[in-house]
């Protein structure tokens, strides 16, 4: 399996300096946008360097275990620089702060699959975002959770809805 396989792409790469990610009820996949009203964005992507970025929906798109009836819970999407020097798995939430436990579980499940592929060897900086529109920055008091997450999977956990492309 290759997470970077073009077959999983549902939209073209973009180099906007500011755009949003949304996971709207009733739509098949999470997606990036500049046209939806900003207050509806589940996450804001700040791409100050105007790097060429690709968003790939993961949930309901890259499925694992479906054929065995044991489908894994996966995060909503993957955002990466086309040169693969930076990557972020993203779980989009529109709920209370308590959703962070579920979100980190989905991120870990996705990252576990990703790390077992050849795709993982191609990536530079690695991040995992829990983005919550109702709580734009809920990272306070999360230092221990972030460290445990990094120790478990080697990805920096960010608990805020602004994704900073580095």
Uncertain segments are none
Molecular shape: globular
Characterize the largest beta sheet: strand count, sense, and whether it forms a barrel. 5 strands, mixed
- Number of helical elements: 2
* Overall SS class: alpha/beta
**Strand runs, count:** 9
| Rg estimate, integer Å | 15 Å
- Helical content band: 10-25%
Percent strand equals: 25-35%
**What is the ordering of alpha helices and beta strands?**
EEEEEEHEHEE
Trace the largest sheet across and list its strands.
4-5-6-7-8
Could you tell me the mean pLDDT? 89
> Distance between the terminal alpha carbons, to the nearest Å?
26 Å
Question: Which key phrases capture this entry?
Answer:
single chain; 166 residues; alpha/beta; 5-stranded mixed sheet
């Amino acid at each position: 399996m290759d997470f970077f396989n073009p077959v999983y792409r549902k939209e073209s790469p973009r180099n906007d300096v500011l755009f949003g990610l949304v996971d709207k009820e009733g739509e098949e996949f999470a997606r990036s946008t500049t046209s939806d009203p900003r207050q509806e964005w589940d996450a804001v992507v700040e791409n100050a360097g105007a790097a060429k970025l690709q968003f790939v929906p993961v949930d309901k798109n890259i499925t694992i275990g479906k054929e065995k009836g044991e489908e894994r819970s996966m995060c909503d999407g993957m955002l990466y620089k086309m040169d693969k020097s930076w990557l972020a798995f993203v779980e989009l939430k529109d709920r209370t702060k308590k959703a962070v436990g579920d979100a980190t579980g989905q991120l870990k499940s996705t990252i576990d699959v990703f790390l077992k592929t050849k795709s993982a060897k191609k990536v530079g900086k690695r991040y995992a975002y829990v983005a919550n529109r109702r709580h734009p920055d809920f990272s306070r008091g999360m230092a221990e959770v972030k460290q445990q997450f990094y120790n478990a999977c080697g990805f920096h956990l960010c608990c805020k809805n602004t994704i900073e492309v580095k």
